[in-house]
Amino acid sequence: MYEPRTVSKAAYGCLSFSLILIFIVVANLAVVCVRWVWGVPTQQSFMSGLTIVFIFLGHFAADKILKLYGLSRSGVVIETRSRYPFNADGDDALDEVVEVRMSSGVFIFLVIGCFVMGLFLLASPWVMSKETGVMRWLGMGMGIFLLIGFVYYLWYRKTPLARVDTEGVTSYRNANAMRQVFVPWSDVQTCEFQTMYDTFGKPILIKPVLRGRNGEKLMEINLLHAPMAQQEKLAKFIKMRLPKPQVDPWEL
Hints:
Strand order of the largest sheet: 1-6-7-8
Distance between the termini: 33 Å
Shape: globular
Radius of gyration: 23 Å
Order of helices and strands: HHHEEHHHEEEEEEH
Number of strands: 8
Structural class: alpha+beta
Number of domains: 3
């Protein structure tokens, strides 16, 4: 099987860094032009906040450029599993419980980031000058929001992102849900595994999508901040419950 060529990580990093610098220069030139033509003032903190956006755009653009020349393995592979028609309860020998939790590194980063930035922005009305106007009160509002996020992460630090056992799956229904729900295996007919790969062909995310007997979406398990080893373990468990590698349309 032919595998596309890839560039070295050093070359990819240089390309991404060059594109990030280009985005920063273009954005600053645009700000200067707007300020010169229309006289609209721009806060320096606003441009600093866009740095994260430029970093994302730099990596995204670098991958797309490499893909045009066949030097990227990024993409999404979809695999569908279903239950056998005469094995509705799956493998009864399974007695393992798999829990997927947020990566400790991501958790520490979010907790410390929300706390420090929350306190910093909360002090905006006293730190910023009165000339900033409404911006300092917006900063205060953002600070309160981040501190609420800090409390939220501490409160739910022991709650797994997803839990699967012989009874079913417990997780958030989608990435925007705030409350976890339980889906029994008896309601699940198929599971669609969407595996995403980076530029070098390394899996970075597995997103299982549970569907019912009529094809309706029951749950889209979001494992974005979980270690890949735990994601693979959860996917393996679900595949053992739904061992059939493809769906026969005559059985739907």
